[in-house]
Specification:
Distance between the termini: 90 Å
Number of strands: 11
Shape: flat
Strand content: 5-15%
Radius of gyration: 35 Å
Structural class: alpha+beta
Largest sheet: 4 strands, antiparallel
Helix content: 40-55%
């Protein structure tokens, strides 16, 4: 009876002890001997990276790499997989690197079947790779020069602004900070005057005489004043109170206000030191500066984002040099970028084609000093080549005599009034001030100038001579081809990174971290470009055969 009951009972009431599950097994071995060495093609970027790291790069030259604990994951393997990730995907996070190392065949080929975690990559980046990544990038360019023909005489230069990894609404504007700092100092002076009167009225004349109102409120001075408040409260046997139902004494109210102003003054002083001469910075990434960018999703009132100005020098599509600055304009970054190029490669480029953002007197003088051909546009070059009738009263539309003397629209030569010397830039500049003596009674005077003393013009003849050389160099057939290539190579490089690989925002914080990240991204771009050129050369040779 129990047997029949158990046999016909509902299935959902059968217990584990009443049922026996037997898993059938077949005596067959389905394991496959898989070889990553055979499956990875010879033209794959992973093989090129392995050849560069293991055959060309001398890792013993880099102390940070040699000191890496390579018990399970050698430094050269982690370097190879990091470069491969940047080559294939443009940029990869630590978590993505971990997944690629575990599941991607090319990464398993470089790692010999083992896979590191994201913590391993994190430690490797910060302790081993970050101090030497710039030099590894330079060695990669030397490797490419040996295997590909690269025109290193021409360096196409361009800049772009990349958004920093900073939180929203972390603005610190130094103009407002200075205003608040001045207001806090005035309040502090009024408070100290009130405190001195209180000390004198309560027979603490010695302490009152020791307090200086005009002294700069630095940290030591504020701590001394705070101790005076504490000692006075102890001598007067005043107990500080807090909360509802308690009335603060006059001394406690002054002391509380003093501490509040002290905190503000110290905060403003820290802001000034952090800014370091900049107009703004972000609290999240203090090295980032607020700059004009395209779309503003912060508050939609102005196109301001915290970011960095990235300068890139390109030759034949390869990134040769990078420079990360906080300057919102490109003009001041020309000389530091070219100097960094010379430090890394030992020579100056013969020519540096660039857009109008780099055309300045200091940059032209620097190029002439070091034998660099003048190929940088200046601001009004396009307008000078297409002067309209409505522009005849603009200074750039004035005619000039053989000695450089400007001629007004009425045809009268202007008279030299004075010569001044300016030392604001890196190179001294001589300015000539010209003034027209025929403005009174001239029928064009009302349209030409509003000055009662006549139209004036300030000219630097050295700069005008340099502008003439720029126009001559760009008017030639070779100059026109170089300017076309500039827009293709330098601007095209940023276009590939931003549009093709969605690299529009930085991931690391701080200038050091940003530079390390950009060196990695640039190395991946160069390897990718080298593989493409190599495959194109093979296709051309096959077509010819």
């Amino acid at each position: 009876r129990p047997f029949l009951y158990n046999l016909f009972m509902p299935v959902n009431k059968i217990t584990r002890a009443q049922s026996i599950t037997i898993q059938p097994q077949l005596p067959c071995d389905f394991s496959i001997n898989f070889s990553y060495q055979e499956e990875v093609p010879a033209s794959d970027p992973s093989r090129i990276i392995r050849d560069f790291v293991e055959s060309f790069l001398d890792l013993s030259r880099f102390p940070s790499l040699t000191s890496w604990n390579s018990t399970q994951f050698p430094a050269y393997q982690l370097l190879e997989t990091s470069l491969l990730a940047m080559t294939v995907f443009g940029f990869s996070s630590l978590r993505e690197l971990e997944d690629l190392s575990r599941y991607d065949m090319r990464f398993r080929f470089l790692l010999n079947g083992v896979y590191p975690s994201h913590q391993t990559y994190h430690r490797f980046f910060n302790s081993a790779l970050k101090p030497c990544m710039e030099q590894i990038f330079i060695e990669l360019n030397h490797y490419i020069e040996l295997h590909d023909s690269v025109d290193t005489d021409t360096l196409f230069l361009d800049g772009t602004k990349l958004e920093a990894n900073a939180n929203k609404m972390t603005f610190v504007w130094m103009k407002s900070t200075r205003k608040y700092q001045t207001s806090a100092r005035k309040k502090m002076m009024e408070l100290l005057k009130q405190f001195k009167k209180w000390l004198t009225a309560h027979r603490y004349g010695e302490r009152s005489a020791a307090i200086s109102i005009l002294q700069e409120p630095d940290m030591d001075h504020l701590m001394t004043l705070d101790q005076v408040f504490i000692d006075t409260a102890e001598d007067e046997k005043i107990v500080y109170v807090a909360g509802r139902g308690h009335r603060k004494s006059e001394l406690q109210r002054m002391h509380d206000q003093f501490r509040e102003l002290s905190v503000k003054l110290q905060k403003y002083e820290a802001y000034t030191e952090t800014a370091g001469g900049r107009n703004s910075f972000s609290k999240t990434d203090t090295d980032a500066t607020f700059m004009h960018m395209k779309y503003d999703y912060y508050n939609h009132t102005g196109v301001f984002k915290p970011g960095y100005n990235v300068q890139a020098g390109v030759s034949d599509g390869y990134i040769r040099i990078l420079q990360v600055t906080s300057s919102p304009s490109d003009s001041k970054d020309f000389i530091p970028t070219v100097e960094r190029y010379r430090q890394k490669y030992g020579v100056y480029p013969q020519r540096v084609p660039a857009d109008a953002g780099y055309g300045s007197y200091d940059n032209y003088c620097y190029c002439e000093e070091h034998g660099i051909e003048l190929m940088m546009k200046y601001n009004l070059q396009e307008k000078e080549s297409h002067i309209r009738k409505a522009d005849r009263f603009k200074s750039y539309a004035f005619g000039k005599q053989e000695d450089g003397t400007p001629v007004c629209p009425a045809g009268h030569p202007m008279k030299l009034e004075k010569v001044t010397q300016s030392n604001k830039g890196l190179y001294p500049r001589t300015n000539h001030l010209y003034r027209s003596e025929h403005c009174q009674g001239c029928p064009l005077c009302r349209e030409c100038t509003r000055s009662r003393k006549g139209r004036t013009m300030n000219i630097c003849h050295d700069l005008e001579r340099q502008k003439g050389i720029v126009r001559e160099n760009m008017a030639t057939e070779r100059g026109q081809e170089l300017m076309i290539q500039r827009s293709i190579q330098s601007e095209g490089t940023f276009g590939q990174l931003k549009e093709d690989y969605s690299y529009t925002r930085l991931r690391r914080r701080g200038k050091d971290g940003v530079e390390f990240e950009l060196w990695m991204v640039a190395a991946g771009h160069n390897i990718r470009h080298y593989c493409n050129r190599k495959s194109q050369m093979k296709e051309r040779s096959s077509h010819l055969n």
